[in-house]
């Protein structure tokens, strides 16, 4: 390998790092897990669907699956203890578990509110607290929370979800401020409009898909694999002086999206840009 290759490998390699991920069996989590494993990480894949987590782990070298319910503090404690017993330490925590139900503000039932808040925000808090104690004891660690485009910009029907993801970003800052003294970093990745099995119906919708493309500079949804690069960087030593930030991976949606009509000799027919 060239000197450049050697240096890049040292900077971005996850070899020897133990990475615990919640929501690991989901559409984004499973892709991140494979990418982190390819970068050398050993993963503790945690999900309510323990069988799916174990199935995913079986194809990733040095990894293992665990069942956990992020709504149950006892389940969280048992999971973290099990991971620590199995691997000896937890170097990186990735809080990826999350749910949504698209409803108007006036339509949200209390039980729906409690469940989304419980999984998306309380679950992140409780899991980070449990792993944080482990990291303090071992001398440091690294936390990556999964935010959302909705932690900055809002869509109709996402009131509770957006509130939880804004809370996740605020919680990320609190972790960074309080835990820096323990050599623990905390950052968030805020995906834009990513194409997954759950969002396919939106991207195939005759009006919503057009609305979205008009607001994304790249005029297409992101792919789960396009989140791997930032995740590897934040999990690696390449980001050693980065903490307390939320990084948007959104194809240019938050910055203003597709521009209005303007004069230029270099204009492109936007209707011919790839949609997927």
What is the H-and-E element order?
A: HEHEHEHEHEHEHHHE
Work out the strand percent.
Answer: 5-15%
Query: In one word, what is the shape?
Result: globular
Instruction: Provide the helix percentage.
Output: 40-55%
Largest sheet: 7 strands, parallel
Number of self-contained structural domains? 1
Describe the model.
The chain is an alpha/beta fold. It has a single domain (7-196, 224-251), classed as NAD(P)-binding Rossmann-like Domain (Rossmann fold), CATH 3.40.50. The chain is built from 9 helices and 7 strands, in the order αβαβαβαβαβαβαααβ. A 7-stranded parallel β-sheet has the order 3-2-1-4-5-6-7, sandwiched between helices. The two termini are 35 Å apart.
Give me some keywords for this one:
276 residues, alpha/beta, Rossmann fold, seven-stranded parallel β-sheet, globular
Secondary structure elements and their pairing?
Blueprint (H helix, E strand, L loop, with lengths): L2 H10 L5 E5 L4 H12 L3 E6 L2 H9 L5 E4 L5 H15 L4 E4 L14 H29 L2 E6 L12 H21 L4 E8 L8 H4 L4 H6 L14 H8 L10 E4 L27
Parallel strand pairs: 1-2, 1-4, 2-3, 4-5, 5-6, 6-7
Helix pairs in contact: 2-9, 4-5, 5-6
In short:
It is built from nine helices and seven strands. The protein has 276 residues and is of the alpha/beta class.
């Amino acid at each position: 390998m060239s000197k450049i290759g050697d240096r890049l490998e040292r900077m971005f390699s996850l070899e020897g790092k133990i990475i615990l991920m919640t929501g690991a069996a989901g559409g984004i989590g499973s892709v991140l897990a494979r990418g982190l494993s390819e970068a050398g990480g050993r993963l503790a894949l945690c999900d309510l669907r323990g069988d799916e987590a174990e199935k995913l782990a079986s194809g990733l070298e040095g990894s293992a699956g665990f069942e956990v319910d992020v709504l149950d503090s006892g389940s969280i404690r048992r999971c973290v203890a099990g991971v620590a017993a199995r691997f000896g330490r937890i170097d990186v925590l990735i809080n990826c578990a999350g749910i949504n139900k698209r409803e108007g503000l006036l339509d949200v039932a209390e039980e729906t509110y409690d469940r989304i808040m419980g999984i998306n925000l309380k679950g992140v808090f409780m899991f980070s607290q449990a792993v944080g104690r482990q990291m303090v004891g071992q001398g440091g660690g690294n936390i990556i929370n999964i935010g959302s485009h909705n932690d900055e910009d809002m869509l109709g029907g996402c009131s509770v979800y957006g509130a939880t993801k804004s809370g996740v970003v605020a919680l990320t800052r609190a972790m960074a401020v309080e835990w820096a003294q323990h050599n623990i970093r905390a950052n968030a990745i805020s995906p834009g409009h990513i194409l997954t099995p759950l969002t396919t119906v939106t991207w195939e919708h005759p009006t919503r898909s057009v609305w979205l493309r008009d607001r994304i500079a790249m005029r297409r949804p992101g792919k789960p694999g396009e989140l791997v690069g930032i995740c590897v960087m934040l999990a690696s030593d390449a980001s050693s002086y980065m903490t307390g930030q939320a990084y948007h991976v959104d194809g240019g949606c938050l910055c203003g999206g597709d521009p209005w009509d303007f004069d230029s000799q270099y204009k492109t027919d936007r209707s011919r840009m790839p949609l997927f």
